[in-house]
């Protein structure tokens, strides 16, 4: 068997680390890139460097931004008394595409998953409680995925906030299939889920 040049082999291994990318897809990526002009490869490398050097987390909601505070948190036209709690920054993007929500967000950075060693202390629940205590929050919308981990996290948040009767706690309606991800839901389904949110 002929040996694959190390540069090709090593890049295939790097692409294999990406979620959902198998060996064959990694090979296609590498052989496609080999056919591109050097400037295209340099542009890609530059975009990757910018991604790592420029993008940070918003100090308020913890979504991705290039500033200290994201545009949503800075927007005074939004209702800062309603917080939509999501697991990951990509969920913010998905919900924003619905154009059905005018509040602000809180990104947990994961979900409670005890078999994987992720407890309440490993996600941003303490930061959520601080925001609730510091600001005059009137509603918390829990928009976690309809999975075991998402439901466990939603119930834990509801219990944490149960002692604060002035705060309405809701979760998005389950127009989403059990086991589905917010990231992959269409905008109409997500918009309907936000509009038909239920009290917890």
Automatic annotation (TrEMBL):
Example of a GO MF term: DNA binding
Give the GO terms filed under biological process for this record: DNA recombination; DNA repair
Please provide an example of a Pfam family that matches this protein in its UniProt record: RecR_ZnF
Q: Which domain of life is it from?
A: Bacteria
The alphabetical list of record keywords is:
DNA damage, DNA recombination, DNA repair, Metal-binding, Zinc, Zinc-finger
- Zinc finger (C4-type) positions are 58-73
Report the protein name in the record: Recombination protein RecR
Q: Which organism is it from?
A: Candidatus Kerfeldbacteria bacterium RIFOXYB2_FULL_38_14
For this protein's source organism, the top of the classification is: Bacteria, Candidatus Kerfeldiibacteriota
Q: Which gene encodes it?
A: recR
């Amino acid at each position: 068997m002929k040996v694959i040049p190390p540069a090709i082999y090593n890049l295939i291994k790097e692409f294999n680390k990406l979620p959902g990318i198998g060996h064959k897809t990694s090979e296609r990526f590498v052989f496609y890139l080999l056919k591109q002009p050097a400037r295209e490869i340099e542009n890609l490398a530059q975009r990757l460097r910018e991604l790592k050097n420029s993008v940070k987390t918003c100090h308020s909601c913890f979504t991705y931004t290039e500033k200290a505070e994201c545009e949503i948190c800075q927007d005074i036209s939004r209702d800062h008394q309603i917080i939509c709690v999501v697991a990951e920054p990509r969920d913010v993007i998905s919900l924003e595409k619905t154009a059905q929500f005018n509040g602000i967000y809180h990104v947990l950075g994961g979900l409670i998953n005890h078999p994987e060693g992720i407890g309440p202390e490993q996600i941003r629940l303490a930061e959520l409680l601080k925001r609730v205590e510091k600001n005059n929050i009137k509603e918390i919308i829990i928009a976690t995925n309809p999975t075991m981990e998402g439901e466990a996290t939603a119930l834990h948040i509801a219990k944490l906030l149960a002692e604060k009767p002035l705060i309405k706690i809701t979760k998005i309606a389950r127009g989403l299939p059990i086991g589905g991800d917010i990231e992959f839901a269409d905008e109409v389904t997500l918009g309907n889920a936000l509009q038909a949110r239920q009290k917890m």
